[in-house]
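Section 5.1 Outputs to date
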Amino acid sequence: QVQLVESGGGLVQPGGSLRLSCAASGFTFSSSVISWYRQAPGKEREWVARILYTFGSTNYADSVKGRFTISRGNAKNTVYLQMNSLKPEDTAVYYCNAVGLSGPSRYDYWGQGTQVTVSS
């Protein structure tokens, strides 16, 4: 069974840090583009960061550049999102997404999301 599972969310004060994890089961990240998205209450889901898993190349939204880092985890099929200097406007449900090709078929998987709340 294919699954993406996010973890690591929680409540943190402004200026604090959190590290989110995204772990895959039932498929491998080897040919995937892994992205993090977030959705704040009353707002549309927005893209945050992506990594081409095989090559490790990364891209970031302007709103998080210099504060967030996406990386491959030490465990296979795991991706992290290190979030530093968190702001109240970073409060959202964060989702992991994996897209790629499996043979001739394209896949597009989403996790269930993890809540991040930045508040004093």
